[in-house]
Amino acid sequence: MSTGPGAASVPAPTTAHESPPAHGVPEAPPDTTGPRTPDATAAAPAPLVLPGSPTPQPPGPTVLTPAEPRATAPTTSSDVSAPDSPAVTPEPAATTPGPPAAAPERAAVTPAPAAVTPEPPAPRERASMFRSLRVRNYRLFFVGQVVSNIGTWMQRIAQDWLVLSLTGSSTAVGVTMALQFLPMLLFGLYGGVLVDRFPKRRLLFLTQTAMAVTGLALAALTLSHQVQVWHVYVAAFAVGMATVVDNPARQSFVSEMVGPDQLQNAVSLNSANFQSARLVGPAVAGVLITTVGTGWAFLYNGLSFIAPIAGLLLMRTRELHPTRRAPRKKGQLREGLRYVAGRPELLWPIVLVGFIGTFGFNFPVWLSAYADDVFHTGAGSYSLFNTLMAVGSVAGALLAARRGTARLRVLIAGALAFGLLEIVAALAPTYWIFALFMVPLGMFGLTVNVTTNTAIQMATDPVMRGRVMALYMMVFLGGTPLGAPIAGWVTDAYGPRIGFVAGGVVSTVAAVTVGLVLIRSGGMRLSVGWQGRQPRLRFVPKRPTTERELVRT
């Protein structure tokens, strides 16, 4: 018997399989409360009376005596539509002849208070740092990325070392990096258009296969001692072209695997995965390069793509959350740009990440200069600085995975803390103080990255997500080839401390400016007051929200 949501189950006067008593045939319900006085008038159940409707008169001169209190279910809409159902009719009490009184009418309108014990609320799911790994498809994806990310970091180290050993030129190493990142800067938006048009799982299968072939080709050329520097240039450019499609497809495919509820957690775990590989991959590559040569590092990277490809093939497509694909038509690139330009919650986070990525993430330039020119400690210190920053990045990713939502105020606060920490770290007087600052720098830098990624995906229409994520990745990664030479020039001309401070100042100013713009676009203002003896700062609406604005929101 359905008694409505949250109602306690109580014994019914009659079973659900019994037919209601026929009209005019006296039939009393089974006795469940004790001895009763039989009476033919008790066979007709009292009709339900809704508030505001005329009160029916009793069929005869009967007086209802209050029955023993019992637990009854509250009346629901289904109960009102079937007043003859014994499941919702109060149990008839013993009657005695006499003049009618007012009590029966009150009893008919308002049943006696029910001693119903409210059903306890469903227990809230405990927030788990790894809750998105309960999804089978994402678990396959995550394990494949663990293996592949280690290989990616190994190839980065081996590739730079191979070019340096072939040419002896740091400029050639820079050209290799530029060729790998240049395709994202030039063609990143077109990659987003492809991601919106075609199934993301199929695109990932193609891009992962292409990068595997590139790694195996470099391994074959290096192990056979036939490799030349132009081979490495071509391989770097090919990997960059695959990344144009792979990055937005991989970022937007996460939401299809886990859904919107687990998106923040899954994006954070992806970042923790990548940063953990950053700790392991270079170390393993260093061992292989010094013992057996760079060719074996390329071979491992090529074979490591078997794991993500197998994970994609083993996924259950019926458990995915597919999004509607964009139809093929002209002007989709301009449509994506207009879409972002018309939404401040998308535009300004991308602008903020663009400034921070271009001017605040030039750590290879600054950390190498600090290790060599400021503390005079050599390459070992440069490696230690990067390791401590990777530890902080992993911690930041896990903390972001613990949080359930991505808020723009967390993004602004993280970016502001990141810029201020860069300024303070740049002025650190001793080696170990500077080294310790690398941990919170890595943590807040990763917080900015993860929060922006999640907030943009959550605020974007699924049919536009590929183009929006491509723009985000283009701004975040494509700014490095532009900002690194500027940071290097400032560092060489004015010293490492001035260069590091300049990056922190740009990040801080960008965070404050974007924060004020978002506050203004959201119709908020800064309110300054006092709480006891302490000042209190908070953001409040400039004016009361009208009903039309509320509906629009």
UniProtKB/TrEMBL annotation:
Biased composition (Low complexity): 30-52, 62-76, 86-96, 103-117
Subcellular location: Cell membrane
Protein name: MFS transporter
Record membrane topology: Multi-pass membrane protein
Keyword annotations: Cell membrane, Membrane, Transmembrane, Transmembrane helix, Transport
Domain of life where this protein originates: Bacteria
Lineage: Bacteria, Bacillati, Actinomycetota, Actinomycetes, Kitasatosporales
Record-annotated Major facilitator superfamily (MFS) profile domain positions: 137-522
Segments passing through the bilayer: 138-158, 170-191, 203-223, 297-315, 346-367, 379-401, 408-427, 433-456, 468-491, 497-519
Region (Disordered): 1-125
Keyword Phosphoprotein attached: no
Database matches in InterPro entries: MFS_dom (IPR020846), MFS_trans_sf (IPR036259), TM_effector (IPR010290)
